[in-house]
Amino acid sequence: MSGRKKWVTSAFNQISTIDNAKVATPPAARSPGVNLNKTNGMKRNLSDNFETVQESGNNNVTQNMSQENWLNIFAPNHVNELAIHSKKVMELREWLQQCETKQNKQPAQICLLSGPSGCGKTAAVFALSKELNFYIKEWINPVDQEIVHNLGDQGYKESYKTSQWEAFKSFLFQASRYRSILGKINDKKRLLMVEDFPNFLLKSPDTFQEILEDYQNYGKSPLIFIVTESRSRGLNISYNLFTDQFKQKFLIQHISFNAIASTLMQKAMKRFCSIMAKNTEKEMYKVPDSAITDSIVVSAQGDIRNALINLHFAALNGIPGVLVTSSEKPKDSKSMIKKRKSQSSLKSIGKDESITMMHALGRALNPKYIDNQQCFLHSPEDIADAFASEPKTFTNMLQTNYLSHFREIECVAVASNGLSLSDLLFQEYREDTLPHTSLNIAIRSVMVANKQPVSAWLPIKAPKRLLLKHQEKLPKEAAKFLIHPNNISSNLYNTDYNIYVKIMSQQNK
């Protein structure tokens, strides 16, 4: 065996080499000078080891500081510290007070709290529940793992698995009826909160309706759903899951929050900076100046969570300064005498500007320039990036509405040439990057060709859907005007010849 080649590496080779290195060997005879150098080397090694121990200790301290949840430091403890409109806070307080009067009575009270990201929905619920002495029990989606329970009277491989539907239903009924062993003693007023929706609710709304029917009859505690709204209706849970008929059936009170105003955001930023200025937080933070805080407010666009994260990274000790860019916007384009309003925004961090379809179409169909220069105020690349998920829809809207915004036919020819090229590139499905390139070409061709846009109120029109009538034979009217033999397919007739046949038939009447 010793002469053969070993093809298996032992897992204990490292341990064996360490043991062999620890075997005592007889020391060789050395001179006194050599021993002196050896002792000096030992002293240097000891000092180096002591410095490494100190560095590791400092690293452990910073690691323990970073492991703490720093968001809890800035969480509002009272209702007065919320950066939310007072009317919305009043609506939520009135609903919780109504739940107190109708405690342990059917039907169970249900509320839907919706709004954009970072508008303070969860913080408002926690602050008001603390004021009114409600004990919150929050649903958190379990880890996606298969839990198999084997029964004693079953054979091998015969078992059952707990589903997410059963876990969610048991949470609603058990948490509303029974107290928690680890909770407070006087937790009679319980509030159930669902913010992390299970996946099965989005796939089967009928199952969600059955669960709420049972909860209204047997539930003992109020239930609140927190939903973040999105621009696309396909991803909007409040639009798809909580329809108007659904809310009327289960008597769900809908409270909609708006994005946080700039004045309330400035007030919240002052409170965050005052917390950073405390002695307990000076080791971690340095209070930024007013220019950075103002730029953070502009870049957040009403999202207080985004503003707090940006402020956290901008105020940390030992990091370089945050880059700030200034953008000038005219107050009134007609009067050139008025001064321009300048505001700064963050360059490296911040929330991307979210624009709607109508705003983007207005920027593409009515392009504006910076100080009469050959430079667009709104970049075509930014408009294309904002609608990279739906390039075909935006291009169809451009093709439907671009003609009425042009003055000269020569400019229309240039724009139509670019739109035709964009439509041709959309047909290529084997390359993933071509749809974004096609959208970019369509936007640039319309903006560059339209040198003098029409200054009038022109409403945006939706693209018309062409319904193809699949027929075996062409209509009798078409046979009068088409060249014989008229062997034309139904698709080609409906797309190219149908409109001309209608015009010619009306003229002959």
UniProtKB/TrEMBL annotation:
The GO biological-process annotations, alphabetized, read as: DNA damage checkpoint signaling; DNA repair; mitotic DNA replication checkpoint signaling
Source domain of life is Eukaryota
UniProt GO molecular function: ATP binding; chromatin binding; DNA clamp loader activity
| Keywords associated with the record | ATP-binding, Cell cycle, DNA damage, Nucleotide-binding, Nucleus
**Coiled coil stretches, renumbered:** none
Q: A GO CC term?
A: nucleus
InterPro entries in alphabetical order: Checkpoint_prot_Rad17_Rad24, P-loop_NTPase
Write out the annotated subcellular location: Nucleus
Q: Which Pfam families does the UniProt entry name for this protein?
A: Rad17
Record's family? Belongs to the rad17/RAD24 family.
Q: Which protein is depicted?
A: AAA+ ATPase domain-containing protein
Give the species.
Glossina brevipalpis
Organism lineage reads as:
Eukaryota, Metazoa, Ecdysozoa, Arthropoda, Hexapoda
